[in-house]
Amino acid sequence: MSDFDGPVFELNQTPLLSRSAVGRAEELRSDTEALRAGWPDAVQLRVDRRGQVEIEDGALVLRPAIDAAAEPIPGAVFLGLRDGRHVWAVPVTELDGSVGDLRLAGAALSDADAGLVTGAVAVLAWHRSAGFSAVDGSPTTPTTSGWSRISEATGHEEFPRTDPAIICLVHDGGEQVLLARQGVWPERRFSVLAGFVEAGESLETCVAREIKEEVGLDVRGIRYLGSQPWPFPRSVMIGFAAVADPAAPLAFSDGEIAEARWFTRDEVRSAIDAGDWMSGADAPLLLPGPISIARGMLESWVSAS
Fold first, then answer.
1. Inter-axis angle of helices 293-303 and 265-274, to 10 degrees?
2. At residue 133, what are phi and psi to the nearest 5 degrees?
3. Phi and psi dihedrals of 267, rounded to 5?
4. 204 φ/ψ angles, rounded to the nearest 5 degrees
């Protein structure tokens, strides 16, 4: 039996939070004069402390930047160019009116809107926790139009942090996939397995270690599928598929997994048709919603038969 048993599948579509149609225009981040010149025509994306943004009729609300201040606001983040106009993320305490976050509204946003919100939520979350240098403990000040911070004492520069995590669809090379439920999740709510990459560890090594720790299985045929930013608050999910033996015993050694089972392709297909975690469907198996790369991985696996 080869390492790549059964049909090889790829992701059917780009993960929803990986979509972006806005150029980041990194060359402008340090160009103070260009940013000031673009401010009168720029737009602002307001983001509250919970990562919520203004959404109306399924579209992101972008307000004139000049309404907030006469020039770029300290603490705002330059996100790039959209239709030739500068776009800034502006942190606010509260938002009024119709608001939403990526978990609930992200799937309905356009590619351009989704890319803006993903970047804005992640970077502004980093700023809220990076007010003091990790090196010398001194206060830090935003620079490079929000894409780094400088220690006021030493000039040491720090950048937004992203924590890599693997997420892996484990299947048997045939008609079964392994799904698991964390102890804090309600009954019937299952997903694929995931975990953070440790220091000095390759992605493939992390896949093998996490699967072994969480459910006690050895995997083979580890294969990359795709990735997705996950700004809750600062991760990137790196998707893989791997093969394991469904006859091998399951063991939950790290205490994170409360239940894991092998499901057939037909069972997963029925769960996809029933909706997702948020639908409230009375189904024997509930799967993640479309905003998660896990959903796309499962849909792609199901369609590969």
1. 130
2. -65, 135
3. -65, -40
4. -65, -40
Q: What are phi and psi of 289, to 5 degrees?
A: -80, 175
CA–CA distance, 90 with 189 (Å, rounded to integer): 36
**pLDDT given for residue 217 in this prediction:** 98
Residues 169-204 pLDDT 10s: 999 999 999 999 999 999 999 999 999 999 999 999
Burial of 272 (C-beta count, 10 Å sphere; 0-12/13-18/19+):
middle
Asked if residues 239 and 297 have their Cβ atoms less than 8 Å apart, the reply is yes
Pick from 9, 22, 21: nearest CA to 226: 9
pTM attached to this predicted model: 0.92
For the stretch 215-265, pLDDT in tens is 999 999 999 999 999 999 999 999 999 999 999 999 998 788 999 999 999
The DSSP line for 127-178 is: HHH-SB-TTT--BEEEEGGGTEEEETTT--EE----EEEEEEEEE-SSSEEE
CA 128 to chain CA mean position, Å: 18
Amino acid at 145: S
Closest by CA to 160, choosing from 149, 151, 152, is 149
Phi, psi of 182 (to 5 degrees): -75, 155
Torsion angle of the four alpha carbons 255, 259, 260, 266, in this order, in degrees rounded to the nearest 10: -160
Which residues have CB under 8 Å from 167's CB, separation 6+?
192, 193, 194, 237, 238, 239, 240, 293, 294, 297
Q: Which of 290, 235, 256, 244 is nearest to 109 (CA)?
A: 290
Domains parsed from the chain with CATH numbers:
17-129 (3.90.79), 162-303 (3.90.79.10)
Which three-class secondary structure string do you get for 165-178?
EEEEEEECCCCEEE
Residue 175: partners with Cβ closer than 8 Å, 6 or more residues away: 264, 265, 305
